[in-house]
Structure formats: structure tokens, C-alpha cells
Amino acid sequence: MKRDVRTAFLLLFLFLLLVVLLLTLDVQPIGIEQSLVGLATINTAFHHCMGTHLLWYVITDWLGIAALLTACLFAAVGFFQLVKGKSFRRVDVSLLILGAFYIGVLALYLFFETCILNYRPHLIAGPMEASFPSSHTLIVLFIMASANVQMPSYVSNPTAVKILRGFSTLIIAVTILGRLYSGVHWFTDVLGGVLLGSALVLLFRATVYRGDRV
Question: 203 is in which domain, residue-wise?
């Protein structure tokens, strides 16, 4: 548990460091309509190397829907426990903690949609859109990785747990790589989503394990 917390705070530090670098280092008008992007040389080089592949944007969008359905499944389990037990005390502590983290992730999404660090490299549909961190990467990573933490509590068959964990890990990997390859984000957008999402997963796991011991 302590290792998870230490690693989580290291990742949060790296995320904040990335934010500072994006605001101060090599800031150039390389975005749409000459919008400013930090670490421009790295981002430009990576973007030119990857190119744009909108099919992967669509694929990762569908994987995002799969992640949201997973979140809804855990929410439904918690709601069923609440209705059946007629009290929040009857709801698994881990599900209440997970719900709090879901709200936190949503709050972070809204914050970065309002406090925009940079915009996407390309217009997708209509006006310019906030791009840092990659909210898609953040949300899918957190939902699917936290599902891996919860899995043994709700699936009794060890083989089924391994298969489901492998499937959710695959969704995470394809989402990260697909988002990079699609060209709809700068490299630092996806990196930011990975750093922040991973930190939140580790904090969630540490909190759940602590809650189980109370």
C-alpha cells in the first residue's frame, strides 16, 4: 500500500512537472490557427512521425464506450446493494470509494476542459477542442485498471478473473497506442493522461486496501 502511495505521488509530481514545462518551455504557435503548444519541437516531431489516422480515433472512441459501460456496471452493483440494504452502510466500501474516484475523474475532466493548456492538432468536429491531458486516455485507463482491482471481489472463478483482467488491460493498451497513432492528440497530451490516470489508479488501490482493513 505504501509503495502504491509513493509511486502515485511521484507520478503526480511528474504530471505537474509536465504541466509546468508545457507552459514555459519551447512554446510555439504550431497548433490550429497558430495556437500555442509547449514542448513544440518534441510534439511536432512525434506528430509528423505518426501522421493522422482517424480510423484509430473511431476505434478508441468505441473502446471508451466499453469503459463507460464497465463503470455503469459497477455503479449498478452499488445501486442494487443500496436498494436491497436500504442504507449506504450495506454498500461495499470499495464501491463507495470507486464512486468518489469517478466523481474526481469527472471533476478533473471538467477542469482541464475549462483551463485549456493546448488544443488538438486537428479539428475533429466543429470548433477547436481542449487536448491536454487526453481525457480519453485518462478515463479509459482509470476505469479499466480500477476494474482490475475490483475484479476478484465480484468474480469467484480465478480463470475468469485472469481473462477479464487481460481483456481490460488490452483495452487500456490499445487506447493509449491508438490515441497516439490516430494523431488527434499531441504526444504530451497522451503522456499526461497516462501519468494522471496511473496515479489515480494507485491511489484508488491503496485506499481500497486500507478500507478493507478498517
Answer: 2-213
